[in-house]
Design brief:
The protein is mainly beta. The chain has two domains: 32-133, Beta Barrel (Lipocalin); 142-249, no CATH class. Helices cover 13% and strands 48% of the residues. It has a four-stranded antiparallel β-sheet, with no helix packed on it. The protein has a four-stranded antiparallel β-sheet with strand order 5-6-7-8, with no helix packed on it. It is elongated and about 70 Å long.
Amino acid sequence: MKKETLLAVFAFFMVSLSAITVVYAIEEKAKVITISKEEEDITGDGKNEVIQLKGEPYQDDENSYLKEIFIEINTSNGKNTTIPLESGAKAALQLADINHDGVKDVFATVYTGGSGGIVDTFLFTLKDFQKKDLTASEPLDMETHFLDGYKAEIKIIATGKSYLFDLRDRKDYYKKMGLYRKGKLNEPTELMVNPFNSLEPIQLDGGKLGLKGIQRVTGIANADTIAFVESIWSYSDGKWKLVKVEVKKEEV
């Protein structure tokens, strides 16, 4: 084959490859969906920003699991800010003054999916056009264990208070699963404490906003829910303060 012909074939191949690459890039970009869009002043300059929560599904389906989730912010000074989040089954965005500085903050939740129902949370301020990670409150630490006589105990580390649960209403299940024998534990067994199953802004006494979190505590299986632990938090002096804890038993 002549040199000129080879060059022509090569040039055609490269042009075709470039065209395919461009089409592929367009198709990939088209997969990004806008989950929600808000227009609020989140910098404190009196002008609105455009805040969009976006995600990229694994498939061309808005109900598909989102492999990438991010917040895109167009600020009033003409600059763009992108905040990457974790992947998840779905996501939500709220704008609220959670750190009590007079300017609304960006609060996002990403639901991981699955039977556990765990949620990841993200909290940022962009006051004076400076992005700062406020980091939402952490889940409560607990000490938990089953007791003889079909009972369980949950101790909240932050308060030192313990809660006792009578679980005789599910003793047949525990006996069948080998947890108890004649009312006695076969071996020391802890309960399973989930991270936050939900975390959302809530109005506190005095009108300021805080966060309310709910953690689920389960027994020997994920479906064996024993209690829900609710905690209320307030942001003050750059850190989270625990305001209240409430523990509620799940009835079977």
